Amino acid sequence: MKTNNYLILSLLCLLQTAGAGDVDVAGGNHQTIVLTPENHVLSFGQDLHIGTDEGKDFIGGKLGRPIDSHVLPGKDPKSIVAQANYNPVPAKVQGLDGLSIARLAIGQNDAAAITTDGDVYVWGPNDHGQLGLGDETQRRSAIKVPFPADVKISAVDFGGAHMLALTTDGRVFSCGNNQNGQLGLGDEKPRLKPTLIEALKDVKIIQIAAGQNTHSLFLAENGTLYASGSNKSKEIGLGPEVPEGVNVATAVKAPVPFKFVAVGVKTSFAIDRDGNLWGAGDGSKAHFGFTTPDGKPDLKDLPTFTRLPNAPANLIAVGGGSRHVAVIDDQGAIYTWGIHATLSAQLGIGPPKVEPGMDELDGVTYSKPQLVALPEGRKATRLHVIANNVFVVTADQKVYGWGQTAHGRLGYGLKAVHSAVNANGRTLYHAHSPIEIPLTDDPSKIKLDP
Prior knowledge:
five-stranded antiparallel beta sheet; about 5% helix; Methylamine Dehydrogenase, Chain H; mainly beta
């Protein structure tokens, strides 16, 4: 296939930079945020983190705005906890009016908006101090993080309960949960305020990636990958000589320099400068796409970063979920592989096959990359992958998503898109193919349950 150098350059620029007027999307564990062409940040899905006061209240803030009156089918319409659990109609995140937003970030529960001036506004449960505000108090609207006056932030990433922040000059700050040393600060003590990672102060970092309570990745301008946190599932690729992990940002041995990094559940991924995909970690969920000589999935672990030979060539972006991987190549095509579960259909390749004895988390395993068909041949430019969903931004500034619809996380009602009946006769709701995510808070334009 002939290489389109102009398209390659355009896609890379879109992946690495954003400004006011660009759309963006970030998906959390059960909630989603989008940046509209009008520079509004909208949220939808679950706001509930933990129910309190015998179900009369909740700790949340995941949506950064008031919950609405919808509840999941069969739930008490007067219950505030049930209302917090289901918010399919997009609405504006509070506290961001008048700001010029460049990019969004989200973790399992917490979220951030980065302005074009390099400021960071955050919201969420903050149960481990991951918002960097000096406390562990929930925030139900956006609030500015008090970084030092000379610090301007270009990117943020959240793990399960920790935050990484990349400055415009290549430094990294971290805060929140540090039980595995994922903050890279040389200990396992939590931090309630953003703290500079001293081990990286002499290195210019260009990309960050935060895992779910496990590990963190830091990519240097020269292509060297640094990691900190747990290696119990081999996820930071430091080999068997480091079975537990490291609490300080440490250079990972690799035979090639990298240009892009990402994390999955107990896994890590990196794209080298020739566009080849590498991986490390737990292979039990088919993240690495290996096959046995007879063509069956080979679910082996990778203790060090290893090239994944079945992955597509000429890649520019990758993301990993609980049981799947998604990539974008230099032509804007998107591919997925892993387990196409009946619960979530997260590969985006059509209705999942249901076989006798399959649990809802089970599904057909695809070790070879599957091409995802975006409507009207659209090209993907940006990618966000979370546990059971995939989101992409296209070259014409559309946002598409697929996977679970639970909690209204795709901006549609639970039953409004696709469904499958599992082997036990239970109906499961999801989007098994790409659907356009609404970039509006007009309720009349939102497709709710029939």
